[in-house]
Amino acid sequence: MNLEAVIGLEIHVQLNTKTKTFCSCSTGFGAVPNTHTCPVCLGLPGALPVFNRDVLKKGVMAGLALNCTICSYSVFARKNYFYPDLPKAYQISQFEHPLNRAGFVRIKDERGKERSIGITRAHLEEDAGKLVHDDDPKGPSFIDLNRCGMPLLEIVTEPDLRTPDEAYRFLVAVKEILQYTEVSECSMEKGELRVDVNVSLRETGEDAFGVKQEVKNLNSFANVKRALEYEIKRQSRLIRSGERLTQQTRLFDVSKNATVQMRTKESAHDYRYFPDPDLVPIELSPQEIDGIRETLPELPEERRDRIKAQYGLTDYDVEVLCSSHKIARYFEDSARGYKRPKKIANWIHTEVMRALNETGKDIESFAVTPERLRELFEIMDGGVISGKLAKAVFDEMAASGETAAEVVERKGMRQLSDREEIVDVVEAVIRDHAAVTDEYRSGKKKAFGFLVGQVMKRTGGKANPKIVNELLKEKLSNQPGVEDH
Ligand code: ADP
Ligand code: ZN
Ligand code: MG
After folding, report:
1. Residue 355: how many CA atoms within 13 Å on its side-chain side?
2. Is residue 303 scored above 50 in pLDDT?
3. Which residue's alpha carbon is at the smallest distance from atom 1 of ligand 1?
4. What does pTM read for this prediction?
5. Which residue's alpha carbon is at the smallest distance from atom 15 of ligand 1?
6. If we measure between CA atoms, which residue out of 68, 232, 78, 221 comes closest to residue 157?
7. Domains of the chain, residue spans
8. 19, 261, 361, 473: which has the highest count of C-beta atoms within 10 A?
9. Per-residue pLDDT, 481
10. 284: CA distance to ligand 3 center in Å?
11. Could you name the CATH architecture of 419-477?
12. Which residues sit with their C-beta closer than 6 Å to ligand 1?
């Protein structure tokens, strides 16, 4: 039996509005539990929700970025269920009439072939609160309702994905699109992006789908991949042994690297969805949708293509630079008006990435702003400092927040370009290394590098390497019997 996996994802993304979906409570992260609450998001009787315009705008932006059709008419519905983190005993969501339908996201598969993954819908809903369990398993559980009413966009895909790796690539692409669109930071640590996976197996070539299992609330893409790999193995073992699967909801246990059953699957009618009588339907005119479309920033695919062409970069450069819209922006700001953008791109891959890792800063709070990075390059090009010293200058800039010029001044790093001064050192080196000098003169060219190194060492790395080379050659060839370099 040759089995093939069929995978569909449900992705919850927190939209980065200032206030909650239906009240003016703050969406700020990490507040004292239950301080960002009010009668509306606590679900107190008589409190009425008022829909936040910014949630709508960001929901539409995300829909457009995911190539969806934006519905001119959408409706909030009550999804009824009881759970301690949901005091209203219903969640406001969208059911029959979602905001966005029928989108797609293009990804590349392992072999670089392009695939289009369908998005069934992307609807708005509010988040629930959070249960906080005591470290002691016998201890109490606490409830934090700050998250109640936070705006979410739930993105549901078609069952178009076929491998765990493809699911991973798709998630990376979706996250990138949402980040570029700036509707969400998508920080998984803060729970701003959560993924449920649905997976079934079928005999390769069959049209009908098998019975799916859902694994809920995965909080990292790596765990999505692991949970899928585990499920595919588990289901294939069951199917091969002739067992009939029943639809289940499972959880991924990180410590066991395995999925465990949570409940048998509930279905839509269990929730008794009905239109929320407290909220009017959302109506959007084509003009309003176009108005929002105009505010969409450049998306990852377009940006990659443009950056590659505009700055003459390689695919690799573009992959690294555009892996984050913030890095891409940093690059473009740094390269603005600079003749050799490729040099800046290389520097960002290596030095900037390293410095960010070392300082634990993100690019937006990084002391070396794009303007300052460009200045460093200009100083380098002007011969004030050598390329080698530039790295040290850059590290100082990152640590102290100074400009390149300030660091060079303070540390006396200015490149030595005075020929008279360098000549003295060159002559001293030739004198002190007579044996090496002789080797060079008898044709051992490698000796030249050693002599250059000695001059650099004596000048504390500050001598202009070009001048050192010229002078050394000149001085060494003053003697007869030396080949030209
Ligand atoms: P439910 O009603 O159980 O929530 P949906 O039809 O809403 O199921 O689909 C939920 C998710 O499961 C979607 O992402 C969809 O693509 C995916 N899905 C549906 N059927 C299957 C299947 N047989 N195997 C894998 N994924 C599936
Ligand atoms: Zn509130
Ligand atoms: Mg569903």
Report:
1. 24
2. yes
3. 267
4. 0.77
5. 8
6. 68
7. 3-289, 300-411, 419-477
8. 19
9. 45
10. 25
11. Orthogonal Bundle (1.10)
12. 6-10, 156-159, 198-200, 209-210, 212, 268
